[in-house]
Amino acid sequence: MIINKIQNTHFSESEEVILRYILSQSEAIEPMTIQDIANATYTSAPLLVRISKKLGYKGWSDFKKAFLEELHYMFQSQDIDATIPFVEEDDAVTIANNILTLHSETAEDTRKLLKHDELNKAINLLSEADVIDVYAKACYEYTGRLFQNKMQTINKNVLMMSDPILQAAMSTSKHAAIVVSYSGETTRMVKVAHMLKERQTPIVAITSISQSELSHLADAILHISSREMLNTKIADFASTESINCLFDILYAGIFAKDYNKNLDYKLTIAENIDDSFSEYAFIDEDNSKL
């Protein structure tokens, strides 16, 4: 997120004056020119350009566009705060309702952030790869493992090693990588992405809406619902749900590329290994036939 990037970047005193003005005015800067803001802060237009470049943008126009888009996104109404979805006074039922509502809102938010061309590009890159490598921080590793298990049931080779640096060092152009980072600036994940670029491995980034270093390195970008604060959240409720949604969408998209073959393979494997049984006839195929 741009605000988080601002907080983690060093600026001169004059630059900080400009940034305080921009943050305080928020959407009110939309009709303002670069010279308007320079005049309002008693600074100069080149300083605004320098700030934009420090934050990873080509210039003021690119920064302003991204900043306003992020504000518009963050100001969209949501019933539940993704960072603090419940408070001390809430009882168990209220907490349950809030968490379930958050999951529903997060899934809808993830849907709205999907872009047709980026999604198709990601599915094609992963479908064509001999091996799919998944890279994620420990807090998101479980979601990657679920994706790996699903993909193995349609005979797709997905790797997720405990050492992402070693995994990246072993990658080739015949691999495709999914790199998961909420901020897009996680030191280890950015290093992995640079290593993958050197090895000509296509990268699908699962990350927030910010113009991060990971986003700039990726070949396709899928955006996570980006309403969770990095450091003040109770837990990764929203980001984990969003990442799960995206992994499921990727699995379904790859499955659909060769639907009948994948369905036949999956059912054949299930017949040979699945000895599950349920007294609930509706979900038990054997009982439901009685």
TrEMBL record:
Record Gene3D superfamilies: Glucose-6-phosphate isomerase like protein, domain 1, Winged helix-like DNA-binding domain superfamily/Winged helix DNA-binding domain
Single GO molecular function: carbohydrate derivative binding
NAD is among the record's keywords: no
Organism lineage string: Bacteria, Bacillati, Bacillota, Erysipelotrichia, Erysipelotrichales
Keyword Iron annotated: no
All residue ranges annotated as the SIS domain in the record: 122-260
Highest taxon of source: Bacteria
InterPro entries: Homeodomain-like_sf (IPR009057), HTH_RpiR (IPR000281), RpiR-like (IPR047640), RpiR-like_SIS (IPR035472), SIS_dom (IPR001347), SIS_dom_sf (IPR046348), WH-like_DNA-bd_sf (IPR036388)
GO biological process assignments: carbohydrate derivative metabolic process
Domain spans labelled HTH rpiR-type: 1-74
Name of this protein: Transcriptional regulator, RpiR family
Keyword entries, A-Z: DNA-binding, Transcription, Transcription regulation
